[in-house]
Design brief:
193 residues, mainly alpha, 5 helices
Length: 193
């Protein structure tokens, strides 16, 4: 009963955060390019929000990740949960990255990463919820559909969209910055903006 309630809570949390983050990022054009409905626009730099919605979303994310980190820490301290230590480390690093991205002015990339993280975790939470319910009691078609949906979501968002939308443009921007700022290069085209 308690395990099922916990899983249902985290599923609802990830759905809520995905909706809020997706609407926020979509509204300001961080997920698409002007005139197109595909996901290929470079993630930065674009204008940040004036209304402070990105700040509110960051605070919401800090609260969600802080709560789950403290729950995992409590589990590790009480039961010595070896399997939970990796997740505890994951959430601690996530909290660090949230603060670091905010402090370094990377709110746009941070908000897109939150959305990607939360949206791809919905399927994982659904699988954990099914396990807590007891997959033997569920129709095989339902189990198969949840597994298939989870696989497509996770692979699509974390293995396709993340590299194409955030990592490749980020590495390109880093490369461009290093070439432009490199005092040892003598090629004129390297200095062109």
């Amino acid at each position: 009963q308690a395990e099922f309630g916990t899983r249902a809570f985290y599923l609802a949390q990830h759905i809520f955060l995905s909706l809020v983050g997706g609407l926020l990022c979509w509204r300001v054009g961080w997920l698409t390019s002007p005139g197109y409905s595909t996901f290929y626009r470079l993630p930065f730099p674009h204008p940040l929000l004036e209304e402070g919605l990105d700040r509110a979303f960051y605070q919401l994310q800090v609260g969600a990740h802080g709560e789950s980190t403290f729950v995992l820490l409590r589990t590790v301290l009480r039961a010595g949960g070896r399997k939970q230590r990796m997740m505890l480390t994951h959430h601690a690093v996530t909290l660090f990255l949230i603060v670091a991205s905010w402090r370094n002015g990377l709110q746009e990339v941070g908000c897109v990463m939150f959305w990607l993280h939360d949206a791809s975790d919905i399927g994982i939470d659904a699988l954990k919820l099914m396990a807590a319910w007891g997959t033997a009691e569920l129709p095989a078609l339902v189990v198969a559909l949840v597994y298939l949906t989870t696989s497509v979501l996770w692979i699509g968002l974390r293995c396709v969209y993340l590299p194409l939308h955030v990592l490749c443009p980020g590495w390109r921007k880093l490369y461009d910055t290093c070439v432009v700022l490199n005092p040892f290069t003598d090629r004129a085209e390297d200095h062109a903006l």
